[in-house]
Automatic annotation (TrEMBL):
Keywords: Membrane, Transmembrane, Transmembrane helix
Organism from which the protein derives: Formosa undariae
Official protein name in the record: Mechanosensitive ion channel family protein
InterPro entries according to UniProt: LSM_dom_sf, MscS_beta-dom_sf, MscS_channel_2nd
Origin organism lineage: Bacteria, Pseudomonadati, Bacteroidota, Flavobacteriia, Flavobacteriales
Compartments it resides in: Membrane
Amino acid sequence: MKKNTNLIISGILLILVLSLQLITDFVTKLTGLDFSAIADQQNNLFIAVSAWVAIIILRRLKTRFLKRYDISQEDNLHSRKVYTQFNILEKVIIFVIIIVAVGLILLSFEGIRKIGVGLFASAGVAGIILGLSAQKVVGALLAGIQIAITQPFRIDDAVVVEGEWGWIEEINLTYVVVRVWDKRRLVLPSSYFLEKPFQNWTRNNADIMGTVFLYTDYNIPFNDLRTELTRLLNASDLWDGKVNVLQVTESKETTVESRILVSARNSPMAWDLRVHIREKMIEYIQINYPDSLPRTRVVIENKATNQPPR
C-alpha cells in the first residue's frame, strides 16, 4: 500500500511540475515577461521529481520480478542468485540516477558552473587529489559491482568470516552484513571478500556435513557404536539420509578418538544434528559401556625387598 501511495504521489507531482512549466511558457509568450529564474527552479524540480519517479518505478519492477523466486524454499540456490544480482543492480542504478540528478541540478547554478569549468581546467591536479582521497570509496563500489557479477556468495549463504559463523543478510554496494548465529550483525566492507579468504558453506548447494568426535577407552566396541549411530540417524528428521560414517581417527596413550561424519540439508540442521548425535552417543556409552569412558591408569607395583624400611 505504501509503495502504491509513493508512486501515485510522485506521478501527481510530476504532472503538476509539467503543468507548471507549460503555464509558465504560455504566460511568457503571452506577456513577454522574463520568468527565467522561475523556469530554472522548475527545471530543477522536474529533475528531482523525475529521479524520484524513476527510483520508485525501478523498485516496483524489481519487486514484481522477484515475486517469481521464493528464497524461503529449501532448494533456493537459483532464487538466491537472482535476488543477489537484482538487489545490487538496483543499488547501482539508483546510485547513478542520484548522481546524474544532483549533477544536473548543480549545473543549473551559474556559480557552480563556473567552479566546474575551473576544475576542468585543472583536471590533472584535481584528478590526482580526488583519486587519492576517494580510492577506498571507489574500490568499495567496484568491489560491490564485482560481487554482483561473480557472486562468491549470495543472499542467505552460510559463511564463516573473521571466525564468526552466520548468514549473508544484506549485500550493498559498499558493505555486506553477516547475521551471526547468535543474532549479532557483522558489517564488513565489500572489498574484504575480494581481499581475504572466507568459508562459504552453501556455494553450490545447501547440503553440508558435520563432524562429532568421541573419546573413549580402548575396550569400546566400535561395531556397536556404528549400530547405535545408524539407529539414531534413522530416527532423526534432521538427517538427510546421505552420510553415516564412524571411523577411528586417532589412538593416544589414554584414549581412542572416533570421528562421526553425518550430513544434513543445510547448516542449521547440521548443527542441530551434531549436538543431538553427540549427546545421544555419550548417553549410550554411559549406560551400556561405562567402563569404556576415558580413564587414567595408574599401575602400582609391589616390589618386595630385603632391606628394612627407613
